[in-house]
Amino acid sequence: MATKHEQILLFIDSLKVGNKISVRQIAKELNVSEGTAYRAIKEAENQGLVSTIERVGTIRIERKKKENFEQLTFAEIVSIVDGQVLGGREGLYKTLNKFVIGAMKLDAMMRYTERDSLLIVGNRVEAHELAIKEGAAVLITGGFDTDDHVKKLADEKKLPIISTSYDTFTVAAMINRAIYDQLIKKEIILVSDIFTPFSETFYLTTKDSLKKWYELNEQTTHSRYPVVDDHLRVTGMVTSKDVIGRDQSLTIDRVMTKNPMTVIKETSLAYAAHMMVWEGIEIMPVVDNHNKLEGLISRQDVLKALQHIQRQPQVGETIDDIVTSRLEDISTDNNHVVYRTEISPQMTNQLGTLSYGVFVSFVTEASSRLLRHLKKGDLVVENISVYFIKPVQLETVLEVKPKLLDIGRKSTKVDVEVYHEKSLVGKAVIAAQLIDR
Predict the structure, then answer these.
(1) Among 307, 341, 362, where does a domain finish?
(2) How many CA atoms are closer than 13 Å to the CA of 270, on its beta-carbon side?
(3) Shared domain check, 93 and 22
(4) pTM of structure
(5) pLDDT tens digits, residue range 82-123?
(6) Residue 251: strand pairing partners
(7) Which residue range or ranges hold the CBS domain (predicted)?
(8) Pair 198, 248 in one domain
(9) Which of 68, 118, 165, 367 could form a disulfide with 143 if both were Cys (CB 3.0 to 4.6 A apart)?
(10) What stretches of 221-283 show up as alpha helix (H) in DSSP?
(11) Domain span at residue 120?
């Protein structure tokens, strides 16, 4: 049977879009306390079922879909170029696949103009008409207009004709920038995207004996399990460390670790990774708002997912990507690891010298490579002390020399020196935790 909280959420879900709701109304209609009604409305807001608007109240809304970050709509193009819509207004919310600059003869221009593309062109009415017939939208630069019959055709085809006062070069630069900005907005990956669901999760109850742990261990080869009560609420975790050498007739609640760390499905993957790495947790239960078990995530799955995201081509090149790709190994022997790089325009600040952030990326990447080279695992930086001794100009060639100062089972210290033509330009000391690869 559904709980009162679940009943309220089902009731809110059944309301028509636009309906106004309140705590008092919900409490009265469903015969629940105002506190229960308030918590359910807040949960409905988290799920995208309702929205609270200042001076209006809480309104039932359409559940929001995940946005497509990788494409621009024609409506966004109008906003980017401060444009005016001359025709085809009904097609503004279509997305464009590419744009073409019409700086060539008409027949050549049409070879590049495809359906759902955007032709950027000046006051060439014939080009406007042919582009609309091909299924492309038109952006007219220089503030020019077009003929009425072309506007009518655009309305029929539901393809926008936009006019802007900017010149073609400026418009192309503005759209390129907007597309790049869209590409670098990574969609946040949540625990719900990667977790092992309840139906595939092995767990123990507080009343099970230790013998049950051994049976599960033999069946699954896993050594860690969440422990739940009669209502499937997570109350503990049990691992091989807890059970080895103990009497198998003991109940799990006598040996388990109580109040374990948990996450909900809406937790970001980055946050889950941070918790698991820094707390040394191998698996973590995924629970609902009532602490009921919904599944599991493992540290291995989380790290794999984060590595997969970093390899996605559509994300665009970040500074870390540039640093990684341009750091060249020039070591002459295993004892003295040296990396070389050249300073590109993307690595500089407004003064044209190497930026502080990129310098930090260099020393961190060099330290990571040194530890991988020594087969010591990957590092997670805990603390970094940076000494920027001299400014580094554009196109300068640098040599980065990491050196291991200290290493333990779980932590390490690395000293990194950065040279230009045998002159020390920067230095850093990194303290980090080690993760087994």
Answers:
(1) 307
(2) 6
(3) no
(4) 0.39
(5) 889 999 988 887 888 788 888 778 887 888 888 888 999 999
(6) 209
(7) 195-254, 256-314
(8) yes
(9) 165
(10) 240-243, 269-279
(11) 74-183
